[in-house]
Inverse folding.
């Protein structure tokens, strides 16, 4: 024992477990009269919002929820969903926010796997809940009504959300975590192969993830945050907790609609929002369709964060011209959402537009509160040289990495092997130390022995003004083994031929990287806007096998 430990014990006077729950308590105490929630005609301040979260925690405790129990939600971005991010852990429970776009059987799997005790759902999803109730008879169901609609008939035993809160105590002495390593959330991966995995997150990580948003995104005091990003997706990238930390305004939105988003940005003077590239591209398309009215009617600059997939430099440039400052972040469910950010440099403003947007399209550097982010050889763990060419696996370690996968020790050990979280993403380190992802392990195309980054091909296609969304996957080839195959979704009102896109790519790509087939169709996407390449691979496989139940397509070139 050193001199600095002798008679210097940890106690309640000098140590408290980190938790984002403290943020809402402070917001209510310091800025209680400030606006906290906007939802249609509803406007609620932080004092009342805090009281409602305490009511929820109290009501859950009275319903038999104890520390360590799982409370699931099935809700869009409503005030009740924000309240759940505080009220559920205030009861000592673990929040499991279910993806509202999933099929019912997958939801049932998650509820059973998590052993959830309570499901809080929006009335919009009562049809799902009917099946869930039959499959999980011990599950308690609480239903939040859709504003402006007639009450939905519910079976006996189901509780109305507002009635449930009325049974709670607004002064409830909520439960702090006894250890910041305690679980706060259970988020399920997409499960594109096999069953979804339950990612367990702790209070410390949630607190530091939220503070990272504040620090690394320069989130100001009292931001006006629009909920375009689903709260069920990595807890809204920890923004529910971050907005509380800055006593900001949560502008709730049930579903993504470009015109509704733009109207809210103007009406509520929204300062910040997040989303996948497809959401930002949709807004850019809609603004451009409005011609000059957007810039004339919107004087303030909007700060947007993009993650979930790498944005093209073209998209970054378009949004900048329209008054949006787009910040590129990167992360996974296992890292509380974004854990890296493309931190800007003042010197970049002197670069021409192409150079500047190319730099801002990179994944960047670790959040300040994440200990480490590096590109390493997955076998030897040796750092790859910072030459912008040598590919390795992107890895994280530190405060913003999951506890592990619920009841899946093999997967946990594999993901956290050798003291690093292995993302499965292949990347390079640039000479300035910034990381740039080249592909997922499964997305790299190996053509004639050469590695082709699908992202490089996609970025070339995105530079064509008619391209709205694009995904490139491997297509088997007798000569080369694999070649790039592109699926393109055109922008509204735009038209382009495959031959034109091929000519466009010839000036931007090496010959071996050229797409050998281009198909035009709406791209399959997840509820958060990520393009589902696994479905596109299935289409390619069906084309190759010429199955009778799948049309055989010929290259459009």
């Amino acid at each position: 024992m050193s001199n600095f430990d002798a008679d210097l014990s940890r106690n309640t006077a000098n140590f408290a477990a980190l938790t984002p729950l403290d943020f809402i308590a402070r917001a209510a105490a310091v800025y209680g009269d400030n606006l906290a929630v906007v939802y249609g005609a509803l406007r609620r301040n932080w004092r009342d919002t805090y009281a409602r979260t305490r009511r929820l925690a109290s009501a859950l405790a009275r319903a038999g929820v104890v520390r360590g129990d799982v409370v699931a939600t099935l809700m869009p971005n409503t005030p009740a969903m924000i309240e759940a991010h505080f009220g559920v852990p205030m009861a000592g429970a673990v929040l499991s926010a279910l993806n509202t776009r999933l099929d019912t059987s997958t939801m049932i799997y998650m509820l059973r796997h998590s052993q959830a005790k309570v499901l809080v759902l929006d009335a919009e999803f009562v049809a799902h809940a009917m099946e869930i109730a039959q499959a999980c008879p011990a599950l308690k169901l609480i239903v939040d009504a859709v504003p402006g609609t007639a009450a939905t008939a519910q079976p006996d035993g189901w509780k109305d959300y507002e009635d449930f809160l009325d049974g709670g105590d607004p002064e409830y002495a909520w439960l702090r975590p006894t250890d910041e390593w305690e679980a706060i959330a259970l988020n399920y991966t997409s499960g594109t192969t096999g069953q979804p995995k339950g990612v367990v997150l702790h209070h410390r990580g949630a607190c530091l993830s939220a503070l990272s948003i504040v620090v690394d995104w320069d989130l100001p005091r009292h931001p006006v945050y629009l909920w375009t990003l689903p709260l069920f997706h990595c807890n809204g990238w920890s923004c529910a907790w971050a907005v509380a930390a800055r006593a900001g305004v949560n502008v709730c939105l049930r579903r993504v609609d470009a015109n509704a988003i733009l109207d809210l940005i103007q009406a509520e003077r929204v300062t910040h929002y997040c989303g996948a590239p497809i959401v930002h591209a949709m807004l850019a398309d809609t603004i451009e369709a409005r011609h000059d009215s957007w810039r004339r009617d919107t004087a303030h600059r909007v700060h947007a964060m993009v993650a979930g997939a790498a944005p093209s430099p073209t998209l970054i440039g378009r949004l900048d011209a329209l008054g949006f400052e787009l910040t590129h972040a990167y992360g996974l469910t296992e890292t509380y959402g974004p854990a890296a950010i493309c931190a800007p440099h003042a010197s970049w403003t002197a670069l021409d537009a192409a150079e500047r947007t190319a730099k801002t399209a990179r994944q960047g550097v670790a959040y300040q509160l994440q200990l480490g982010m590096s590109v390493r050889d997955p076998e030897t763990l040796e750092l790859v040289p910072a030459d912008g060419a040598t590919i390795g696996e992107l890895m994280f370690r530190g405060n913003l990495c999951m506890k592990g996968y619920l009841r899946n020790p093999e997967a946990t050990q594999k993901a956290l092997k050798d003291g690093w979280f292995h993302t499965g993403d292949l990347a390079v380190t640039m000479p300035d130390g910034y990381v740039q992802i080249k592909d997922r392990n499964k997305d790299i195309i190996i053509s004639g022995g050469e590695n082709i980054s699908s992202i490089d091909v996609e970025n070339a296609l995105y530079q064509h003004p008619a391209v709205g969304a694009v995904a490139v996957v491997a297509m088997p080839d007798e000569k080369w083994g694999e070649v790039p195959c592109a699926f393109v979704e055109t922008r509204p009102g735009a038209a382009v031929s495959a031959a034109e896109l091929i000519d466009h790519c010839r000036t931007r790509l090496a010959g071996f990287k050229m797409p050998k087939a281009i198909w035009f169709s709406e791209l399959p996407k997840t509820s958060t806007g990520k393009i589902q390449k696994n479905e596109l691979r299935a289409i390619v496989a069906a084309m190759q096998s010429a199955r009778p139940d799948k049309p055989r397509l010929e290259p459009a070139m």
About this structure: DSSP finds 18 helices and 26 strands in the chain. Residues 547-557 have pLDDT under 50 and may be disordered.
